[in-house]
Amino acid sequence: MNVNTNTVKKTQGRRKIAIKPIDNRNSRHVTFSKRRLGLFKKTSELCILTGAKIVVLVQSLKRQRVFTFGHPSADAVIDLYLTGKSSSSSLLSSLSIDEFNLQRNNHYYSEMCKDLEEEKKKKKEENIEEEKLVNIDSNNSDNNVGCWWYEPIDTKVFGLMY
User: Which residue among 53, 76, 120, 136 sits deepest, i.e. has the most Cβ atoms within 10 Å of its Cβ?
Assistant: First the structure.
């Protein structure tokens, strides 16, 4: 087995980076966006695994935007922290919004399924029509009717003698 040790890696791969401030603004913004999504994903996993009520607030440097993640909702967790008791109105409003979104997504999904079934039926009908045309063509070729390549070769035209 011949192993070439002179190959150069095209990418840096996954490697450890030094934790220090990033000087380039564009690189810093890209890193912020990617790490923010990773932070929210890990927070969501922690909520699911432990049932903890968590809120994460992150402010961007570039546009001073605030990004939030909360379980069950950011408002409910903040109200619980500030007042010491659960705010059922904000929890109910977040649940009703979630239910509305769920119903809307279910409706969209059912419409897409109907559209998909219609497309499948159309495609099946088109395939049946194509098969009929192919069968008509194959029946004509069995009779050697209508196609010049089924005509017998005239050897005199080509000057060939068998």
Answer: 76
- From residue 96, alpha-carbon distances to 30, 44, 100, 145, 158 in Å are 34, 20, 6, 71, 85
- The SS3 call for residue 111 is helix
Q: Residue 62: what pLDDT?
A: 73
- C-beta of residue 109 within 8 angstroms of C-beta of residue 101: no
Which residues are CB-contacts of 52 (< 8 A; sequence separation ≥ 6)?
A: 46, 71
8-state DSSP, 153: P
For residue range 24-76, list pLDDT tens digits in order. 988 888 888 889 989 999 999 998 888 888 999 999 877 788 989 888 888 88
Structure tokens at 16: 């450890």
Question: Is the pTM for the entire model greater than 0.90?
Answer: no
Alpha-carbon separation of residue 15 from 18, 26, 116, 122, 126 (angstroms): 10, 21, 44, 51, 53
Cis status, amide bond into 72, omega within 30 of 0: yes
Cα–Cα distance, 66 to 31 (Å, whole number): 16
Other residues' Cβ atoms within 10 Å of the Cβ of residue 97? 11
